[in-house]
Amino acid sequence: MTAHDERAERARLYELRRLGILDSGSERPFDLVAEDAAASLAAPVALVTFIDERRQWFKAAVGTDLGGTPREMSFCTHALGLTEPLVVRNAAADDRFARNPLVTGSEHVRFYAGARIESRGQALGTVCVLDREPRDVTPGDLRTLTRLARVTSALLDARQDRGAAYTPLGTPAALAFAVLDEHRRVVRVSEAARGLLGLDAQVVNRDARDVLRVRWVSEAHELAAREAVRRGKRWTGPVVVEVFGATMDVRAVSITLSPSPACGGLTVYFWNVERRP
C-alpha cells in the first residue's frame, strides 16, 4: 500500500468511526433497505455492509445468519474503489474470488452485485445482493442498488441528527421517496411516502406537478436546488408542499433531491414531515 493509499484509508476509517455505525443495534430503516434489495433483484441474500481494517460487518442482512466476515473474504472490499456497482456474474470462474471460502465453502456464493455507500466522499461499505447460482443483472437492477446505497447514505446523515431519521408518525423517513423519470413523471412511490403525504397508488405515471405543488422557502433555496440538480448533485433543504387530494394537504417537509444524470431522472426523499392546518 502506497503512502497515498494509507492516507486515503485513514480518512475512510475516520469517517466510519465518526458515524458510530459499527456494532450498533438493529434499526428498521436499514433492515428495509436490505429487504428492498432482496425483493427488487429477486436475490436470496441481501446485505448492508460496513468495512473496517479487519472485517466486513453486516448492519442488516436477509437470507444469512452471518454477522460479518473477515475483510480478506469480502467481495464488498473490491467495490469500495469503484464509482459504478461491482458485478461478479460467476465467482467460481473469476480469478479474484474462485478460491474465496465464501465460494468454495457452504455459503456457495456464485453471484454478487454491490453499490458502495458513501459519507462525505468516503466509501464505507455497500448495499449488495448475492446468489448461489451464476446470473446476470439488468441496468435497472444496478440503478436500484445505486439508489438503495444512496438511501443508506442519507440514513447515515440523518442518524447523526438524533431522531431525524423518523417522522412524528414513526415511519422511516429515509425510505419515503418518489422516483421521477426525465419528464418528471412519477415512476415509483414508496409505501412510506404514500403514508406520510397522503398519496394513493394512482399517482404512478402521473406528472409529479399534478401530485405535489412545491412552495420554496426562499428564492435562494429554489435556485440552489435547481443548480444542484442541473449539475447532477444532491440537494437537501426545507420546502412546503401542497398534496393534491390529501385529507390534510399542506405539509412542511425537508427533501433530498438525488439526480440520476445517466437517465435524467430524479429521486426525491421526504424527511421530517409535519402536517399543517
Topology (elements, then pairings):
Blueprint: H1 3-19, H2 28-40, E1 45-51, E2 55-62, E3 68-70, H3 76-79, E4 86-88, H4 101-104, E5 111-119, E6 122-131, H5 139-160, E7 177-180, E8 186-189, H6 191-197, E9 212-216, H7 219-230, E10 235-243, E11 250-260, E12 265-276
Antiparallel strand pairs: 1-2, 1-6, 2-3, 4-5, 5-6, 7-8, 7-12, 9-10, 10-11, 11-12
Number of domains: 2
Overall mean pLDDT stands at 84
Structural class: alpha+beta
CATH topology of the largest domain: Beta-Lactamase
Number of strands: 12
- Widest sheet, order of strands: 3-2-1-6-5-4
Radius of gyration: 19 Å
Number of helices: 7
Written as H for each helix and E for each strand, in order along the chain, the element string is: HHEEEHEHEEHEEHEHEEE
Portion of residues in beta strands equals 25-35%
CATH class label of the largest domain:
Alpha Beta
Are there runs of 5+ residues with pLDDT below 50, and where?
162-174
Q: Could you say what the CATH architecture of the largest domain is?
A: 2-Layer Sandwich
What oligomeric state is this?
Answer: single chain
Largest sheet: 6 strands, antiparallel
Question: Can you characterise this structure?
Answer:
The protein is an alpha+beta fold. It has 7 helices and 12 strands. 29% of the residues lie in helices and 31% in strands. Strands 3-2-1-6-5-4 form a 6-stranded antiparallel beta sheet. The relative contact order is 0.11.
